[in-house]
Amino acid sequence: MALMTAKEYIESLRKLNTRVYMFGEKIDNWVDHPMIRPSINCVAMTYALAQNPEYEDLMTATSNLTGRKVNRFAHLHQSTEDLVKKVKMQRLLGQKTASCFQRCVGMDAFNAVYSTTYEIDEKYGTSYHENFKNFLIMVQDNDLTVDGAMTDPKGDRSKAPHQQSDPDMFVHVVERRDDGIVVCGAKVHQTGSINSHWHIFMPTIAMGEADKDWAVSFACPTDAEGMYMIYGRQSCDTRKMEESQGCIDVGNAKFGGQETLVVLDHVFIPNEYIFLNGEYEFAGMMVERFAGYHRQSYGGCKVGVGDVVIGAAALAAEYNGVEKASHIKDKLIEMTHLNETLYSCGIACSCEGCPTKAGNYQIDLLLANVCKQNITRFPYEIVRLAEDIAGGLMVTMPSEADFNSDTVVGRNGETIGEICNKYFAGRDDVSTEDRQRIMRFLENMCLGAAAVGYRTESMHGAGSPQAQRIMIARQGNIQGKKQLAKDIAGIK
Ligand code: SF4
Ligand code: FE
After folding, report:
1. Per-residue pLDDT tens for 229-243?
2. What is the Cα–Cα distance from 393 to 481, expressed in whole angstroms?
C-alpha cells in the first residue's frame, strides 16, 4: 500500500473501535471531538508533509526490510545521515504545528525494540526479532501510527515491580498460554495514544529476576479487547469547546498534543506480537535505547516549536511598537542562541551515532542525554523571555466574545466590542485582532494547552532530569578523565 494521505489517516481512525473516556464519560465520536481533533490534525501533518515533494527527502526513506518507500516515522535508521534527517524532520514538524505531533514515540520504539530483540535472540534463541520484523513490515506497508508506551504508574517509587502492593503498578503477565500471554496494568501520560493504530509496550525500568513477569514487551492494536484510554486534561483545554468564531482564545486552534492513561485489563497478546517475555536482564537495554532515541528527538521537535515561539515573540514586539528597542533585539538573540544550542545537541548526538549489533543506528548516548538535560532548562528560559517581550496582556486580555460583543456599555452607545478594540489597539498599522491573536498564541505556548508539549514535557518527557544525570554519570568516563590529568601531571 502507498503512503496514506492526511485525510486517509483521519478516516482510518474512524474504523477502529478505540475506547476513549473523558470527563467521566465514553466519547463515541472522538475523531471529531473539539478537544481531541487538534491532536489528530497534528499527527495528520506527518502524513501530509510526506506527500509533499519539497519534503520527500526528510519525510520518507527506503525500508531496509522491504526496499519499499516508507514514512520516516516508520523507518529503522540505517546511518548517521538517517539520524540527522530524523532530527531535521522533527524540527520541521514542530515549526508546522507548534505542538507535539506524537508519532515519534513509535519511531523511537521501533528502533529500540529492533536492536534489543536481536540481542535477546542471540542469547536465548528466541524469535522476538523475527516477530518484530514482521510486525514492522506490516506497520510500514500500511503506513500506520504506533504509540511507544513505556511509562508505568510505578506506585511506590522505592519499590521494585514485584514489591508493589498492587502488582498492576507495572504492566505484567498474568497468564501464560500456548498461543500467547494475558497482560494487565497501565501506562501513564501516553503521547498520541488514541491517535495510534497500534501500541508497542515496553518496560519502564531495568529489572531483576524477581520482576520476570513484569519484563515484557509486545505490540497490540489500539482497540484490542480489554484496552481503553482516559484522556488527560490540559491547561485551558475547554476553551476548545467554546463556540467562538475565530477560535482566537484557543491560541492554536488547529494543532495540539495529547496524553492519556492507557489501561490494559486482561488483554490477550498472541505469541507473534511478543518481543520480550521474562528475559529480565534486557529490560534495561530496551529502556536505555528508547530513552536515548527520545532524548535525541527533543533536540528536533522542541527546537521547531521554539522557532515558532521566537517568531511569535518578535511579532508581539512589532505589534507593540517596540521592535527597535535594543533590549528586545538582545532577548530575541538570546532565545535564538538557546534554541540553536538545543538543535546542536540533537545534531551532534546523531552525527556521533553508531550501528547496533542488529544493524540499525543508535545515537551517541552521552550526547543525547546532554541534549535532553538542556531541554529541561532552555525552553523555560525561552518562554520567560517570550513573556517578558509580550507583556502582561497575554494573560489579562478580555475574551474574543467581548471583542465581538454588540452589548452597549458606553455613554455614547459604544459596544463592549468597540471599547475593547479601542483600548487594546497597538500600532496604527496593526489590527487589534492580530495583536489579540499573537498574545493568545503566546499564552497557549507558554502556559496554555501547548505548554504541556513545550514546557512540562521538556522537563519530564523522555525521562525527568535526574534520569539524564544518571546516564551522564554512567557515560561520562570520569576514570578516563582522571587518567588524562594524571598523565600530564606526572602522577603514576
Ligand atoms: Fe515527538 Fe517531541 Fe512529541 Fe516526543 S514530545 S512525541 S519527540 S513531538
Ligand atoms: Fe514526549
Report:
1. 999 999 999 999 998
2. 51
